[in-house]
Design goal:
single chain; alpha+beta; 3-stranded antiparallel β-sheet; 3-stranded mixed β-sheet; 5 helices
Length: 168
């Protein structure tokens, strides 16, 4: 590790701490030449393994780029997309992957996208899962409808608890 002040190569670690919920290590260092102190952060590099076997570093922007296309014309903001990208990266890191198969990145995108916008979810899923007919869309819509009533009934029950009972 080079000292950022004098560029000397002999630095010593004086303290190490886990950061970002275990996703990184923060090290406090001192330079043996100029005696100045500085910090470094070591973070696990997430690597995506493509179908061809080639690998490349995971980039949030690349994951969000495909989602952005699916969200075109939908009420989804850039902040929403940034949050989705962060959520996808966090979920992949929490799974403990060092090398993530490309299809796992797509699967990690589907859940938060479904919660963000159902139409964008259908658009993305149709490309990701290679829908071949209207039947594929109908099956996916049926799955959305099956999971939605449970979520809506929970939301309705919570809303009813917050509202005062009608006087009568």
């Amino acid at each position: 590790m080079h000292c950022p002040y004098c560029r000397h190569t002999d630095t010593r670690v004086i303290d190490s701490r886990v950061a970002d919920d275990g996703g990184a290590i923060r090290r406090r260092r001192t330079c043996s030449s100029c005696s100045k102190r500085f910090s470094t952060v070591e973070q696990m590099q997430l690597v995506v393994v493509k179908r061809s076997g080639a690998t490349e570093p995971f980039t949030r922007e690349k994951a969000v780029a495909g989602v952005r296309k699916a969200c075109k014309g939908r009420p989804v903001s850039e902040d929403d997309l940034a949050k989705l990208g962060q959520e996808v990266e966090n979920s992949l890191r929490c799974e403990g992957w060092a090398e993530v198969p490309a299809h796992e990145v797509g699967l990690a995108i589907l859940k938060p996208l479904r919660e963000l916008d159902e139409v964008a979810y259908l658009r993305f899923a149709s490309v990701y899962r290679a829908f071949e007919s209207a039947d594929d869309f109908e099956a996916e819509i049926a799955m959305l409808r099956l999971s939605k009533p449970a979520a809506e009934s929970v939301g309705a029950a919570e809303q009813a608890e917050r509202e005062p009972a009608p006087a009568g």
